[in-house]
Every structure is written in structure tokens, then in C-alpha cells.
Amino acid sequence: MAGVVSPSHLHLRREGLVAEVWMPKSSSTQKDGSDSRSSLLESKLQELPHSHRLAFAASCCERAYLNYVVFFQLARWGGPTALRGSLNRVWDFIEGSSEALDDFAELEQKSEAVTPDLDDFATSDIDVQAAAAQEAAFMVRLLLQFCRDNQLSYAARITTFAQDTIDMYVQVIEKIDPSAPDLNEKVAQHPLMLNEIQQEESDLLRLTRIKTLAELQEFRRQATHPERSNIGWIFEQKDF
Description:
mainly alpha; two-stranded antiparallel sheet
């Protein structure tokens, strides 16, 4: 599995279920920054049709999905096919298939069933990968809900999960003390975080210019073939 990083022991443990998916605990500074980004994102997405909003969120999920594949290849637990199937159905829905989500409940159940429990993967050789995989699964489940409910807050929460994954990973690989006063700044300025935010902004700009189904299909093609995950993991095989 080329290019996969094996980071040191995961120092962060997060908990707290919110609306069927867990959200990490944050400092007031982190929360203020996140709220500001979410508000700006929702404002930009408000101008787009639902199909384009979903395409933006699905693109974020695709970069996180690769983290799940890394976890699966290492742990030999889970089911990338369930998440891949849900993502494919969402893209079909985005492209106008009225039947793509006929088995919506089944898609949700399958995605939930392959979401790892961090308590089952608490050892230093797999805990980071498990945490990234869990957030990827949560993102796909939120994406399914976004299809059904069409609430902009779902897209904002998906990007929050993506950035939380990067936050966690940066703290581990850079060995940053969670209590460091400059923690937020170090994470915010890390190349992985800057790359993710830049990609999100690029996706948004491109989607504002997409007018035809053919253009939307090309967006899908590129979004489903990212060179690496949102935390920089690369590997030889990612099709399941």
C-alpha cells in the first residue's frame, strides 16, 4: 500500500453523539472559526441548485472515503463497497436519476453497519486510521440525509468533519500538544488544511459555472478520482 503513513499513537479521544453522528469537542476559538466558515459556506451554497450543493458535499466525501479504504486495507474490517455504493447512488441522484435513492433506508443501514467503533480499534497501529475512517463513514451518512432533507447545514457539517479529520491527523503527525496556545494557528496553517480549504473553494467556484449535465458529469469524474485523501494518504488500489 504505497504512500500510507503510519503515524504515532492517537492522542485525541472525542465523544458525544449529536443527531446520530458524533461531533468533536472544540475550544471556543475553534468553534467561532468553524461557525464563521459554516455561515460563509451556507451563504455561497444558497445560490446553487440542490444538485450542485450535493455535488460539493459529495466531492468532500470522496476525499475522505479514501481514508476509509486505507483503514479497511490495514484492519481488514468494514465494507468500502457499502460506502462506495452510497456515494455512487448520490452521484446518480445528482445527475437526475429519480430512482437512485429508492432504497435510501437500506443504504443508510449498510453505511451505519460499516462505521467503525473507535473502542474496537484503540491500539497505536490502527487508531488514527480508524478515527479517519469513522469520520468518512459519518460524512457519507450525512450526505445521504442531505439528499433527503435538502438542508444546507448538512453540507456545512460534512466540511466540518473533513476539517476535523485533518485537525486530528495534524496534531498526531506534528506531535502538537493539545493544550498548546498556538494549536489552532498551527493546524489552520498546515498544508493539509490549506489544501482542503483550497479544494473546497475551487469546487464551489467551479460549481457556480456549471450549467449543463455534461459539465456536472465531468465534475463527478474528477471528484471520484482524487489523487490522495484529505489527509494526504495515497495507495495503489481504491476500487471495491
